[in-house]
Specification:
By secondary structure, the chain is of the alpha+beta class. The chain has 15 helices and nine strands. The chain has an eight-stranded antiparallel barrel. Helix 6 crosses helix 12. GO terms for molecular function: inorganic triphosphate phosphatase activity; metal ion binding; transferase activity.
């Protein structure tokens, strides 16, 4: 078994010529046509277990590769256990040299091809000081049945030196071609083709290792947020969809919440730097989201048409921003920081970074819970701004609860307590969200000169009734048993 560490970059097909002509690439490199078949059981047990199994053919040579997701993939930098060996035919060899047979048991006998990948691969070895990086450029297609998806990606694999060298090379590439961070392995692209096309991707459960340090938990959580963002960003850039926009915005908010949650152990300058950029992006996405929601609440007619007109330029502004060097660079910056910088800060914060994640999580969850309970009292008497602050803090509490759920869900009783707590918190969020919509809708309409048609907007309900419901939900949360105890 060996450890594979690589950084993926997505390259637009229109930028291939600029990349290939650039001074980034050495004059000498390799070229090969690769054909790979990926295997799994009919019910995709390997995928569920976090393994991929493929046989790749180049000329007369066949190499079988097994990769294991170790919880470090997907947020830009891929670090995976890998087992390779030559095979004679296009059929997997499942013996003790790989973990597949032991993981599947009797189901190993049902393994069959599920999709194919065909690429032209160009390879260069780049040496800079003590660092040696293999640069691989793949162009081709992944196919599953009658469906297919293009591949045009760059992989930077560390051969010697520190991971920082991968990012230094990535920046040189980004200076000549508009690359963006890649978060999907070829195997994931293939598995997507086996399912119905998605309008959006919701946040995946964060897998935290028992006994992990608090700083390791932060890096895992932040990488999951980056992956959530990039998956939906790709959908938006391909074809604007309100659901993908919403999930892109949620991913940004989750990442901002993670920075706030772990702020005590991080360098203040780093947190400020990324929060400022993410806040700008969140506001841009929020404007588009508000108009998407508004048009959904408006019946067909003149107001609906007018909202559609003003929404178009806002959507275009979002796509332009996502495709900008500012946003592309920011995401790569964040992943570089998570890889080589987030674990470093002032010496007086080292104790917090080394603290067991469970202890840190329990303390921070308690802090946010107490804040929401204290500042949400007398809900019906709070002004709009203070109630909005409670809403934002409750949202951070919700995200923190989701981030840390696996640390406190070892038994059925603990899992039930977690579910009940989240249900109670969701109820409060729903009521506070509806109240926020009632408050902000007039200003949104006014901003686009639509105040004369406000009566045409559906929903919202009575503010008095919403306040009463929010007060009841807040009382339930105050009385709820905390799952982190």
């Amino acid at each position: 078994m060996k450890q594979e560490v690589e950084l993926k970059l997505e390259l637009p097909r229109g930028a291939v010529d600029a990349f290939e002509r650039s001074a980034v690439l050495p004059s000498q490199g390799g070229r090969a046509m690769l054909e790979a078949v990926y295997f799994d059981t009919p019910d995709k047990q390997l995928q569920a277990l976090g393994y991929t199994l493929r046989i790749r053919r180049s000329g007369d040579e066949r190499i079988q590769t097994v990769k294991a997701d170790q919880g470090e993939t997907g947020g830009g930098l891929f670090a995976r256990a890998e087992w390779e060996m030559p095979v004679a035919q296009d059929e997997p060899v499942l013996d003790t040299r790989t973990p597949i047979a032991a993981a599947l048991g009797e189901a190993a006998g049902t393994i069959a091809p599920v999709f194919h990948v065909n690429v032209e691969r160009r390879t260069w070895l780049i040496s800079e000081g003590r660092a040696k990086t293999e640069l691989v450029f793949d162009q081709g297609m992944v196919r599953a049945g009658d469906r297919q998806a293009p591949i045009c990606e760059i992989e930077l694999e560390r051969k010697a030196g520190e991971p920082a060298a991968l990012f230094a090379l990535a920046r040189r590439i980004e200076s000549v071609a508009p690359v963006r961070l890649g978060v999907a392995a070829k195997s994931e692209r293939g598995y997507r083709l086996l399912e119905a096309a998605s309008a959006c991707f919701k946040a995946e459960k964060v897998s935290l290792k028992a006994g992990a340090r608090a700083v390791d938990a932060f890096q895992t959580i932040a990488r999951a947020c980056v992956r959530h963002y990039r998956r939906n960003e790709d959908l938006l850039l391909d074809n604007y969809d309100p659901q993908a926009l919403h999930q892109t915005r949620v991913a940004v908010r989750r990442l901002r919440s993670a920075l706030t949650l772990f702020k005590p152990m991080l360098a203040e300058a780093d947190v400020t730097r990324f929060q400022d950029e993410l806040r700008w992006l969140a506001q841009l996405l929020g404007e588009a989201r508000d108009l998407d929601v508004l048009i959904q609440r408006t019946e067909a007619g003149q107001l609906h048409d007018r909202i559609h007109e003003v929404r178009g330029p806002v959507h275009a502004e979002v796509v332009e921003a996502l495709d900008s060097r500012r946003v592309r660079g920011m995401i790569i910056d964040i992943v570089e920081w998570l890889t080589v910088g987030a674990g470093k800060a002032d010496a007086d914060r080292q104790q917090l970074r080394d603290e067991p994640a469970e202890q840190f999580a329990a303390r921070r969850l308690q802090h946010f819970h107490r804040w929401v309970v204290k500042h949400g009292r007398r809900m019906t008497k709070l002004d709009d701004q203070r109630r909005h602050e409670v809403r934002k803090k409750a949202k951070k509490l919700r995200y923190a609860s989701e981030f840390f759920s696996e640390l406190f869900a070892g038994t059925k009783k603990e899992r039930r307590r977690y579910v009940r707590y989240i249900e109670t918190l969701e109820k409060l969020q729903d009521e506070l969200g509806a109240l926020n919509d009632l408050v902000t809708m007039p200003s949104l309409l006014a901003r686009y000169g639509l105040t004369d048609d406000a009566a045409m907007v559906k929903g919202g309900g009575s503010k008095k009734k919403r306040l009463a419901a929010a007060a009841d939900a807040h009382e339930e949360l105050a009385d709820a048993k905390r799952f982190w105890r």
